[in-house]
Amino acid sequence: MAACRALKAVLVDLSGTLHIEDAAVPGAQEALKRLRGASVIIRFVTNTTKESKQDLLERLRKLEFDISEDEIFTSLTAARSLLERKQVRPMLLVDDRALPDFKGIQTSDPNAVVMGLAPEHFHYQILNQAF
């Protein structure tokens, strides 16, 4: 018989789970409060590349979610971590609102490309540079 394991952590997707754009999903704040009452680690994840972690955090706090910045992990967080680990200089094809998440990353003379949802940057001249 398999041993019963205690739940140690929960990953909660943000967009569509806690909020949809600038509106909280009904009941999400209460569900988060109940989850906080359990003895589990909670981390919030998202694959959005449209905004910085700080902008996302401000949006969530305006919607009355009790979340701290160090609990949020985004695709931009993962990209920055990879850039730092590989020590590359990226061309950043990301929305301007996402640029703060790359503050301090060397981007001159790029030898890598980071691409996010940024249709305003997707045109032949920029894409040719990236290639």
Concise account of the structure shown:
Helix content is 29%, strand content 20%. The protein contains four helices and seven strands; from the N terminus they run βββαβαβαββα.
Polypeptide structure, described:
Helix content is 29%, strand content 20%. It has a 3-stranded parallel β-sheet with strand order 1-4-5. It has a two-stranded antiparallel ribbon with strand order 2-3. The protein has one domain (9-130): HAD superfamily/HAD-like (Rossmann fold). The protein is elongated and about 50 Å long. The longest helix is centred in the middle third of the chain and has 12 residues, at 75-86. The termini are far apart. The chain is of the alpha/beta class and 131 residues long. The chain contains 4 helices and 7 strands; from the N terminus they run βββαβαβαββα. β4 (41-46), α2 and β5 form a beta-alpha-beta unit. This is Haloacid dehalogenase-like hydrolase domain-containing protein 2. GO terms for molecular function: metal ion binding; phosphatase activity. Its cofactor is Mg(2+).
